[in-house]
Structure formats: structure tokens, C-alpha cells
Amino acid sequence: xxxxxxxxxxxxxLGALATIHYGNVYEDSTLEGMAQRVLASSPRRFVLVGxxxxxxxxxxxxxxxxxxVAGVAFVASSARGYSKEETERRKAGYLPGDRPRTAGKISTxxxxxxxxxxxxxxxxxxxxxxxxxxxxxxxxxxxxxxxxGYADLERIACPSLVVACRQDRLRSFAETERMAQHLPHARFxxxxxxxxxxxxxxxxxxxxxxxxxxxxxHL
Length: 219
Description:
By secondary structure, this protein is α/β, with parallel strands linked by helices. The chain has helices at residues 11-15, 31-40, 53-64, 84-91, 120-142, 150-153, 173-182, 198-201, 203-216; strands spanning 46-51, 69-75, 160-165, 186-191. The protein is 41% helix and 11% strand.
């Protein structure tokens, strides 16, 4: 439930590296459909950055078209499959972490570092993205079938970056770290003092990590 505004604070830094393209993950009900749609609107060859659910899409896309992905970065993501019970809870309106909806609204606080979960500016940006995307997108994204993909990561041959957030309450540190352990050419980095929403909470640090990785990997 994040739109283009997720990256607003990173645009100056990323835009200095290359042209930025935003993937459309709002109209499809499967990871494969999302990956195909993103691929159809992307340049011939590109560096792919997937945040959270976008990391699941990035994994599928990279395996779908390895000749087009020069490098792939996974930010606050995972390759863990969801159980049937987890999928059903999400369909019913729950978020990762089993925080239920209240008064018709989705709880956003757990996506932030505990010290920022009442930050009015961050909460407003999160809720504004949710309102813009709307109920239908939330239902499609919540109901995605996510199979375990750690073994699939071993087939990704391009340079990769895995970024874990130390205080992430929606993706366990172990889940994200495990991604780096399965990727053949991975760099693993940690954002300290950061909850799940790294592009909002630590945009400067995340931009610097991406820039240094792109430079070191000669992308």
C-alpha cells in the first residue's frame, strides 16, 4: 500500500545516478502478473529495487527476465512463504504482525520504528498513500499467494543488495538476512535505528547504500 511518494525523499540522490522508473504493482492479483506488468514498462536493461512486497515481485521478475536485470536490491523484504492461515488473515484485513484494522482503518504504526510510530508527518504520508490506492488495491495485495522463494534466490546470478532494518517489526531480521545467505553475489547491509519504512525513515542512508552498491558492482 505504498505509491510513488514512498521514494520522494530519495529522488534527488537516485535521480543523480540514473533515470527513475516506478513499477505498477497495483492492478494485478499475482506476483507473476505484477512482475510482467513492471517488465513491460521498463527499459531494456535496468537496476531493480524492491521494497517490502516489492522485493517478492523483484525476485520473480529477475528470474523471469535475467537478461534485463543488471542488478537487484531487496529492501526490508523476505522470501518466506505465507501459510494458508496467514493468507486468510490478510484477506480478512490484517497486516503482517497480526495488527487488526480498527474503526475501518488500517493500522500503520507497526511499520515505523517504535520511537516514530506517533510521528504525525510520517503517519500522514503512510495514510495518504493508503487512501490514494484504495480498498481494491489493498485487497489484491493482501490476498497475494506467496510461496517460499529462498531456493529460487540461488538462481539469481546478477549482483544483489539486501538491506535489513534493525527495528523492523513487519519483517524479521532473520528473514531478510537469510535472503543474502541464499543470493550468490549479495552484499548485506543494515540500517540502524530504522523500522520497516526505510525509504521514509532513513532516505539519505538508504540512498547512500544503493549508490555505493551500484558503484562497487559497476552497474
